[in-house]
Structures are given as structure tokens and as C-alpha cells.
Q: What sequence folds into this?
């Protein structure tokens, strides 16, 4: 494997990681601040993609679709919050898990019923549909660079919000010790709604951004959800910084693992079984990495919780 | 609370169960029940929908009758989970007393239900899955398939690659049995160099790593088998990465089920199949025209083969004059395959897999804006699958 | 006193109904296969409830234990061995062994980290099973025949199989109940409340939890062996994380902390899914909200329903 190819693979890994970060950021905030396990975060990502696809088809423009989908995703998130999640904040984690699972079942089916089972197509925006030549014969789509850029910008924005604003201070305090914050007289309900809504919007945004390159279909949120949980556990629950680094790490492991494992296996096995064994091990790599990290730092890379 | 409610239902069921035998006898004179197995849940549900739409159109063209008997369809959603399929098919056989089990998109589901169905002496007509397990020594007198043997289709692409003179081909498939069969099938006729064999996870979304590898290897062509959502993502990302100048040879990757999502990205990509919507014979024209009128999308092989399945059943039941109890006669009638297939030539081999022509197809855009695959040239004629010789039936 | 009878009344009623089911209209083959599957899943759910409610270990990889039991049957079947005297111990040992090995690592963590580690191990088991090309890989493996009992093919008879499943379910319930009531169980439950206090009294929770996890794994392995027999087909999808999730949901629905609740949860899940599936293909649109309502209104899950109803009556 040449250095050039390795660099391209690393770039691919970072781009995937950034997309994961967009999903994981909302999840870690909700879990950290509200101590709420939201399994339905994956379907919020899916809803974002579907809403973006529909609005883009209706208006004929990807950008209009994106601009309309964000408030729509926010609205859906808030509706869910008021109808279901609000009643679960004081319940134990397991009840939250079961209830949010019910939400997943319902929304996956609803999406199927409304949009049908066939994958939807979202055209790439004209502005970003070019490519730059990274390697002879390989074009790197400008759109993917845009995702990378958008993800980094969002990370920066989040950092600014969380570290430098008063609301951010409240969020950080809430993630560290929520009952104390409530005891200090902050309207914890409104803070929760704010965090939840913002998390839902982030997930929806990730969905819309991913739509042109990945397939928009029912159940698309489930794989992403599992990876997002892996990310927040590695990063440390409640820590946005942790989620960012962990997401990049997971993205790199996934991508580089897939490219390098079969070659690595070729050192030990004959070509054909090496490729299959390599592929199998590559699928497990993220989980092995997570287990290894948790063995050394059980609370994740940047633990936040004290209360 | 729940328990008492069930008691009432159970009592009703018991009464119903006792009354069944009498009803069954009457039903035999009146109609035929078909258990239609197709995946209706999850990312691959679109394929199951096509299968169902194709079969039901066949029934409609036959005025709702198969061989003169009025047909009733029992829908079975296998959810792409073998254990669910087994349970539901058993229920269909024993509770609903279906006379035939038809359909099945995926090979692993077929594998799971093969024994439960054939052990009750019920005919299993697959209209899509065609694993090699049942083509050779595992051939079964109660199993027929109106599609093909999976390996065959991949070997067609291998032959086409050989004919085009490609020397170095990059191979990429999903990491499961059908993927491995695809590689095997392709290599059976392609004698050049396989530059690399890449196996990707079944739920892969992002092919950027593999595409970079392909670019680095600079092959003469790519051969891939990426069904459903995998194909949608691969094709679009392939085009976006600027790799479209490397010929895209595929099976089940650019078909009418995925083309609506792939659109222009798939233009000019190749595929291999025994049928394409643009085939010019009377029954195919009628099939495609009525299908599009009813469902507003272009039918793919899943629908076409299911349509043929309905026609096959019609011809067989007509031959035995509606007597479904004489299984030997019914088998002979099925083997005769006395119907006009939408692909033109159709007959069964000794192992109940079709002997048919295979074509190299290309993705094209129709004047009305819809996409379909169109035949380019015939690659194999009256092709018998490689496992037929091992079958010891008859 | 009255409440204790009330507590046992529901599970006893359910078990009695299950025993009588073949004669209450569920006598047809397909219905008995469904019930067998339900009882087997209930058995696995009971073992999960044992570690979850008893020891506070929330495992999202329990399907892997079932998978180990099922694949033990597959591997022995491929080698031509179907005798129960061999298959049963191997299935239990394989699953318990996997549980002990993975538990040794996982039990060092707690809370959501424990959940994720068990998920990780479950996924590893899943991918390994999918890559076993010799046993069908992803497509699965059809058994040649069911497990034989001392040379006979008794388990092939659906009625015998039904009562075998029911018997094993009852045995698992009794075993887990006995363990929880014993000194061993008391240490477990105390450690669940506060491992600090337990340590202060001189007990190290770790070995107790590990043993509990191993036992639960063994029971699930036995359930897996029966599952392989019930469907006569085994596929890697049996080990998917969604199946682990299903087991967890059954336990939660039934009521955490209640062993027989797991049975109720399993029954509810499988039977409601089957029943709703007949009504409409979009049954999940109803099932999802039903689960949400169950969580919101059934505090204590299905097992807590009688107490909740009685409580309402007392007040009103």
C-alpha cells in the first residue's frame, strides 16, 4: 500500500468520523446532561435525511431542502420530547431504553408507510458536485470535503457554545451534576428542552448531509446508532470534545481497518481465506478497540461525570 | 386480563381447527392457495415488493385463476430473518393449508424453508433465489425455480469479460455466501488475472476506502455483485470518484430495483441477466406495459420471474385439470413448463433449474426519463447450470 | 400474605396455561412451534433477568450465549453426533465458557460501559459465526435431525418437545429463584445496591458476579440448544445485536427484578407480534406505541400489573 493511498484512506476515515461526530454530539449531550439514553437518536438522523430528501425534491434545490429540513427535524424532535421523552427523565435507564425502542419501531414503520420501501435519491448540489484529483485516476468529491468542512465548523461552533457562553456553562454544569444545577435555581426543564432540541437538529443535519452520498432508506439509522454509542462511550459520556476525538478515531479505525486488514492477514494466510478473514476481523475492529480502551480507561477518554 | 382474552380466541380457534378438514375438501374443488414469501421489511423490502407485484400481475392477467382454479394469495413477510421465515411458512402450510409456496428473494431464506416445505410434499417454486445447494446433489423433486442458478449469472459476466478481452479485473463483493458464490461463478469463465478480491461487510455504507484501492490498482474492469442498498451507494460513489472510465461489470447491482435511486450515475454500466424489460416478444411487451400502468415503475427481474412463476403454475394446474393431490402428475406438469415466458425460451433442466439464454445488458435512459437495463448481446445460449450433472433425480 | 399469593398467582396461571395449551386450540404444528420458541426465549430471558435484576448486570450480548448453544448443536450435528448426553453438556459448557471468559473482562466495568462491552463481545461472536463457511456462514445450517434422547427420536414429536421446553423453563425459573434466595444471591443483590458496602463487610462482588454471569450463560446455552431443535435451522442472525436487544426488552417489559416477569415479557413480545402481524403489515405502528405506553403506565412491568391493579382497587 503506497503512502498516497494511505493518505487518501486516512482522509476517507476522517470524513466518515466527522459525520459520526455530528450524530454522536447530540447523543452525548443528551445522555450527559439529562442522563437520558435516547435510542431514538438514530431515527432522528433518518428523519433528517428523509425530510431533506423530500424538501429537496419539492423545491428542486438541495440547499432549500437543507434549510427547510433543519427546523422540521427540530420540530419533530420537540414533538417527541413533549409526547414521550419528557415523561421518562425521572425513570431508570432501562425504562428509557424500552420506550425509545418503541419510538424506533414506530418511526421506522411510519417512514416505510409514508415514503415506501425503495431507497430515495437525493441529488448532489451543483456547487459541490465537482471533484479534485487526489491520486491519478481517483477523484475526491468536493461534496465530501464540504462534509468535512461542515463537521469541523459545527465542532468549532459547539466548542464555542459550550465553553464560552452562559448557556454552555449551564450545559457543562448539567453534564457534571444535574441535580445540583436544578438546586441552584436554573429552570432545568427548559435547559433539557434546549439540549434535546439542539441534539435532534444536529442528528437531522447529519442525515441531510449524508443523504446525497449514502442511501436514504428505512432503518438507515440503526447502524449509525450503534457506532454513535461506541463513539460516546470511548469519548466519555457528556463530553463533546471526547465525542469529537472518539468519532475521528472510530472513523479512522473503520476505514483503515477495512483497507489494511486483508493485506495484514495475507502475511499469515493464503490469499482467498486471508481476504475473507481480513474482512471479518475488520468488522470487529471497532469493538475490539473499544474494549481495549475501556480496559485501560473505563470512563472513556474525557470523563465528565462527577455527580 | 390478556390470558382470559386469549381463552376466548383459543376456543374459537379450536372450533375452527376441527372444522378445517371439511373446509379443505371443499376448498380443493373451489380454489388454490399460494403462500407468497417475500421480504417486506427492512432495507431490502423493495425487492420483495417487486416480486409480489409481478406475481399479482400474473394472476390479474389470468383473471385471478390458476389453471381454472380461483387463486388466493397468503402473504408471508420473511423479514429477511430465517427463523421468522420458518415459523411463518410452517403456519402457512399447517394453518392456512397453502397448496404451493412461491417466491423467496434471498437464498438464505430459501435454505431455511426448503425442508419444512418439501417434507410436507408441498411444491416450493422459487422465483428469485437459486443457490447451487439445490442444483446439484441437493436437488429436490418438490423444488423448482423460475429464475436461474446464482453462479450462472456471475459466470455470464465472466464470459463477457473474457470475450471483451479484459486481462486484469478487480473483484468486489459483500462478505457472505452469495458474495463468495459470485466470485466463484465469475472466475469459472474469466481466465484473466483477478487483480484483487475485496469482501465488504453487508451493512457497508461508505465505499471510499475500496474505491481508492480500485484507483490504485488501475484494472481493466471492475466486477462487482452488490445487491440492493449496497449497489445504490457503490454506483453513486463510483461515479463521484471519477472511476466511471473503468468499465463497471456487475450482477444484481444495477437493476430496476436500484436504478430509480442510482439514475444517471449508473448510465452505461453493465449487467448480466436472462431477461431485460426491453425484450421484444409479445408476452414481455404486455407484461411491461401493464406493470408500468399499474405500478408506475419499471419492473425488474424479481417481478418478471414472479410473473413467469404465475404462468408456470397456471400451465401446470391446467395440465392436471385442477387435481392437486396427484403429486407425481403435478410434478410432470411443472417440469413440462408449457407456458410462454417473458424471456422467450424457457425450459427446465433435469434439476428443475431453467435452461435459458443469458444476455449482457447495459443501463440506459428511456425517452420518458425512466431508467432500465437493455440487452446488448447474447452471451450464453441454452445454458445449463454447472451443477445439473450432479443431480440424481429421475 | 395476600400479596405473596397474588404475586405467584399470575406466573402459576401462565405456566398452567402453557401446559394446557396444546389442548386449548394450540395443537397444530405451527402453533406449537411458536409456543416452543416463546418458551425457549422465555428461558433465555429468565437467565438475563437473573443477572440483570439479581446482579445489576445489563448485558446487551446475551444472544451470543444462545448462539453458542445453537452452534454447538450444529457442529456436533455436522460431525454426526446427535445424542443428548453429549450435545446438552457441550452446549451448556460452550455458552458458560464464553460467558466466563468475556465476563472476566466485562465485569470489571459497570453501567453503560458494561452494556457496550457485552455488545462488543456479542458482535465479535456474530461476525465469527458469519465467517464459518463450513457451517453455512451467513446462509445458515439446516440440521439433519433433532437431538436424540438415548437413541430415540422422542424430541421429534411436537407434544414431547413442547413439554420438554416447558420443563426446562420451569427448571430454570426454580434454579434462578433458588440461587437468588440463597446466601450467594444475597451477596449479589447487596452488591447491586452498593458494592462499596459489600466490600466493607468483607465480600468481593467480582467472583460472585462472574459466577452468576457464567450460570446465566449456561442456561442461555441450553435455551440455544433447544432453539436449534425447534427451528431445525441455525443462522448467525440468531446472534445479532437486535436479538440481544429483544431479550433485554422482554426482561424490561416483564418487570426488572422479577424472574417470572421475564416469562411474561417473552410471551407478550412473541404472541403480540404474531397476533398483530395478522391484522396488518404495519403492525409496528401499533406495537411501538404499546411498548411506550407499557413503560409509562406499567411501573414494575407486566409482573407488577396485579399489584398495581390491587393497589388501585384498595385506594378506590
A:
Amino acid at each position: 500500500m503506497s503512502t498516497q493511498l494511505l493518505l487518501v484512506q486516512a482522509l476517507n476515515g476522517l470524513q466518515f468520523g466527522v459525520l459520526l461526530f455530528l450524530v454522536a454530539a447530540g447523543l452525548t449531550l443528551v445522555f450527559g446532561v439529562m442522563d437520558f439514553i435516547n435510542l431514538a437518536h438514530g431515527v432522528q438522523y433518518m428523519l433528517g435525511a428523509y425530510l431533506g430528501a423530500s424538501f429537496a425534491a419539492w423545491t428542486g434545490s438541495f440547499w432549500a431542502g437543507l434549510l427547510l429540513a433543519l427546523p422540521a427535524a427540530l420540530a419533530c424532535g420537540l414533538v417527541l420530547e413533549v409526547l414521550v421523552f419528557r415523561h421518562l427523565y425521572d425513570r431508570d435507564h432501562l425504562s428509557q431504553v424500552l420506550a425509545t425502542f418503541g419510538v424506533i419501531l414506530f418511526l421506522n414503520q411510519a417512514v416505510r408507510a409514508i415514503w415506501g420501501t425503495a431507497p430515495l435519491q437525493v441529488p448532489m448540489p451543483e456547487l459541490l458536485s465537482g471533484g479534485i484529483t487526489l491520486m491519478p485516476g481517483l477523484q475526491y468529491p468536493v461534496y465530501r470535503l464540504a462534509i468535512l468542512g461542515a463537521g469541523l465548523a459545527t465542532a468549532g461552533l459547539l466548542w464555542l457554545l459550550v465553553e464560552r457562553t452562559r448557556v454552555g456553562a449551564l450545559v457543562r454544569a448539567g453534564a457534571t451534576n444535574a441535580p445540583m444545577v436544578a438546586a441552584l435555581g436554573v429552570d432545568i426543564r427548559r435547559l433539557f428542552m434546549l439540549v434535546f432540541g439542539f441534539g435532534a437538529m444536529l442528528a437531522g443535519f447529519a442525515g441531510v448531509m449524508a443523504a446525497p452520498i449514502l442511501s436514504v432508506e428505512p432503518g438507515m439509522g440503526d447502524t449509525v446508532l450503534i457506532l454513535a454509542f461506541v463513539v460516546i462511550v470511548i469519548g466519555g459520556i457528556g463530553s463533546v470534545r471526547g465525542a469529537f476525538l472518539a468519532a475521528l478515531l472510530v472513523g479512522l479505525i473503520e476505514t483503515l481497518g477495512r483497507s489494511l486488514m486483508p493485506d495484514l492477514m495475507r502475511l499469515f494466510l493464503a490469499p482467498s481465506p486471508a481476504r475473507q478473514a481480513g474482512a471479518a476481523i475488520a468488522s470487529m475492529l471497532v469493538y475490539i478497540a473499544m474494549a481495549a480502551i475501556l480496559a485501560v480507561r473505563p470512563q472513556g477518554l474525557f470523563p465528565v461525570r462527577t455527580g | 386480563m390478556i390470558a382470559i382474552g386469549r381463552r376466548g380466541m383459543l376456543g374459537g380457534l379450536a372450533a375452527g381447527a376441527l372444522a378445517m378438514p371439511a373446509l379443505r375438501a371443499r376448498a380443493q374443488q373451489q380454489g388454490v392457495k399460494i403462500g407468497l414469501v417475500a421480504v417486506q421489511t427492512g432495507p431490502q423490502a423493495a425487492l420483495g415488493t417487486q416480486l409480489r407485484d409481478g406475481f399479482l400481475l400474473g394472476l390479474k392477467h389470468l383473471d385471478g385463476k390458476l389453471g381454472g382454479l380461483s387463486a388466493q394469495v397468503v402473504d408471508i413477510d420473511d423479514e429477511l430473518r430465517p427463523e421468522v421465515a420458518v415459523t411463518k411458512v410452517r403456519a402457512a402450510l399447517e394453518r392456512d393449508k397453502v397448496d404451493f409456496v412461491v417466491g423467496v428473494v434471498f437464498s438464505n431464506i430459501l435454505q431455511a424453508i426448503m425442508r419444512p416445505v418439501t417434507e410436507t410434499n408441498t411444491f416450493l417454486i422459487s422465483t428469485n433465489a437459486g443457490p447451487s445447494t439445490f442444483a446439484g446433489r441437493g436437488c429436490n423433486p418438490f423444488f423448482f425455480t423460475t429464475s436461474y442458478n446464482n453462479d450462472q449469472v456471475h459466470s455470464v459476466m465472466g464470459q463477457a469479460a473474457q470475450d471483451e478481452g479484459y486481462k486484469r479485473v478487480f473483484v468486489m463483493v459483500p462478505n457472505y455466501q452469495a458474495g463468495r458464490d459470485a466470485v466463484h461463478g465469475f472466475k469459472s469463465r474469466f481466465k484473466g488475472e483477478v487483480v484483487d478480491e475485496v469482501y465488504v461487510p453487508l451493512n457497508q455504507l461508505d465505499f471510499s476506502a475500496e474505491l481508492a484501492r480500485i484507483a490504485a490498482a488501475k484494472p481493466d474492469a471492475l466486477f462487482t455483485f452488490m445487491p440492493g442498498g449496497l449497489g445504490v451507494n457503490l454506483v453513486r460513489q463510483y461515479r463521484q470518484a471519477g472511476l466511471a472510465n473503468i468499465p463497471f461489470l456487475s450482477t444484481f447491482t444495477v437493476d430496476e430495483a436500484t436504478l430509480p435511486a442510482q439514475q444517471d450515475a449508473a448510465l452505461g454500466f453493465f449487467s448480466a441477466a436472462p431477461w431485460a424489460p426491453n425484450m421484444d416478444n409479445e408476452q414481455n411487451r404486455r407484461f411491461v406495459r401493464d406493470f408500468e400502468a399499474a405500478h408506475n415503475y419499471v419492473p425488474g427481474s424479481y417481478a418478471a420471474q414472479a410473473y413467469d412463476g404465475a404462468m408456470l403454475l397456471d400451465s401446470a394446474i391446467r395440465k392436471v385439470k385442477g387435481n392437486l393431490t396427484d403429486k407425481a402428475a403435478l410434478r410432470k406438469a411443472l417440469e413440462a413448463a408449457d407456458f410462454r415466458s417473458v424471456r422467450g425460451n424457457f425450459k427446465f433442466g433435469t434439476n428443475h433449474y431453467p435452461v435459458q439464454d443469458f444476455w449482457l445488458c447495459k443501463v440506459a435512459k428511456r425517452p420518458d426519463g425512466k431508467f432500465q437495463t437493455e440487452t446488448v448481446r447474447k452471451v450464453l445460449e441454452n445454458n445449463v447450470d454447472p451443477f445439473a450433472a450432479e443431480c440424481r433425480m429421475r | 400474605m395476600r400479596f405473596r399469593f397474588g404475586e405467584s398467582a399470575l406466573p402459576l396461571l401462565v405456566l398452567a396455561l402453557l401446559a394446557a395449551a396444546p389442548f386449548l386450540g394450540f395443537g397444530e404444528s405451527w402453533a406449537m412451534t411458536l409456543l416452543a420458541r416463546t418458551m425457549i426465549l422465555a428461558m433465555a430471558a429468565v437467565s438475563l433477568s437473573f443477572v440483570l435484576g439479581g446482579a445489576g448486570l445489563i448485558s446487551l450480548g446475551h444472544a451470543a450465549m444462545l448462539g453458542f448453544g445453537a452452534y454447538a448443536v450444529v457442529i456436533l450435528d455436522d460431525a454426526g453426533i446427535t445424542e443428548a448426553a453429549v450435545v446438552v453438556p457441550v452446549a451448556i459448557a460452550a455458552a458458560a465458557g464464553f460467558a466466563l471468559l468475556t465476563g472476566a473482562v466485562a465485569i470489571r466495568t459497570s453501567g453503560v460501559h458494561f452494556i457496550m462491552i457485552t455488545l462488543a463481545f456479542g458482535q465479535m461472536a456474530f461476525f465469527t459465526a458469519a465467517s464459518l463457511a463450513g457451517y453455512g456462514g451467513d446462509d445458515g445450517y439446516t440440521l439433519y435431525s433433532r437431538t436424540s434422547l438415548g437413541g430415540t427420536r422422542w424430541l421429534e414429536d411436537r407434544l414431547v418437545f413442547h413439554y420438554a421446553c416447558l420443563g426446562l423453563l420451569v427448571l430454570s425459573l426454580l434454579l434462578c429463584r433458588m440461587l437468588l434466595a440463597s446466601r450467594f444471591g444475597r451477596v449479589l443483590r447487596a452488591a447491586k445496591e452498593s458494592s462499596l458496602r459489600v466490600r466493607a463487610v468483607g465480600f468481593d462482588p467480582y467472583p460472585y458476579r462472574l459466577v452468576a454471569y457464567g450460570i446465566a450463560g449456561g442456561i442461555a446455552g441450553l435455551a440455544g440448544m433447544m432453539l436449534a431443535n425447534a427451528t431445525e435451522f441455525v443462522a448467525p442472525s440468531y446472534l445479532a445485536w437486535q436479538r440481544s436487544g429483544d431479550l433485554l426488552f422482554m426482561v424490561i417489559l416483564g418487570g426488572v427484578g422479577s424472574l417470572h416477569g421475564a416469562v411474561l415479557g417473552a410471551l407478550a413480545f412473541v404472541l403480540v407480534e404474531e397476533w398483530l402481524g395478522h391484522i396488518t403489515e404495519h403492525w409496528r405502528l401499533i406495537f411501538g406505541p404499546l411498548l411506550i405506553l407499557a413503560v409509562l403506565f406499567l411501573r414494575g412491568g407486566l409482573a407488577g400489573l396485579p399489584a398495581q391493579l390491587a393497589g388501585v382497587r384498595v385506594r378506590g
Remarks:
- The first strand of chain A starts at residue 131 and ends at 135.
- Chain A touches chain B through 52 residues (CB under 8 Å).
